[in-house]
Write a structure and sequence with these properties.
Elements lengths: L4 E11 L5 E11 L5 E6 L6 E6 H7 L9 E6 L7 E8 L2 E8 H14 L11 H9 L1
Antiparallel strand pairs: 1-2, 1-7, 2-3, 3-4, 5-6, 6-7
Length: 136
């Protein structure tokens, strides 16, 4: 029997304005009750911050720059380092630029596709729940 959700701990870096980095662990989650999205919980003070991403946006961003508005994702390939994915988050309070290994993010996404394959999300979407979230 397939699990209904997964959670992976990924090592990430926060890239500062002067390119200094701070390494941290983020929790990335996927659940069948929300088949189109993944969530990432980032440690912060005084409490953690959770962002919701389109699973497709994240997957596409491993291969090519994608996204507009609050979330932009793109691959970073340098000759002498491991391929990375960069994620830029925009908020009214400021921006954050993050980086993680593409291989780690790909493992997380692959695990999510084992629960609900890419392209089959709408077969698992509860339209009533979606409408309730939109109008409440």
């Amino acid at each position: 029997m397939q699990p209904s959700s997964i959670s992976h701990q990924l090592q990430m870096e926060l890239i500062g304005e002067t390119s200094e980095t701070t390494t941290f662990t983020a929790e990335w989650s996927y659940t069948t009750s929300r088949p189109l999205e993944v969530t990432a919980t980032f440690p912060a003070q005084p409490e953690s911050v959770t962002w919701t991403f389109s699973r497709d946006l994240l997957a596409d961003g491993l291969r090519e720059p994608t996204g507009h508005g609050d979330i932009v994702v793109w691959p970073e390939h340098a000759d002498d380092t491991e391929p990375m994915v960069r994620i830029w988050l925009r908020t009214p309070g400021g921006d954050a630029e993050l980086r993680a290994a593409i291989a780690d993010m790909d493992r997380f996404l692959t695990a999510s596709w084992q629960i609900i394959p890419a392209g089959a999300e709408y077969d698992h979407l509860d339209v009533d729940t979606v409408l309730e979230r939109l109008f409440t």
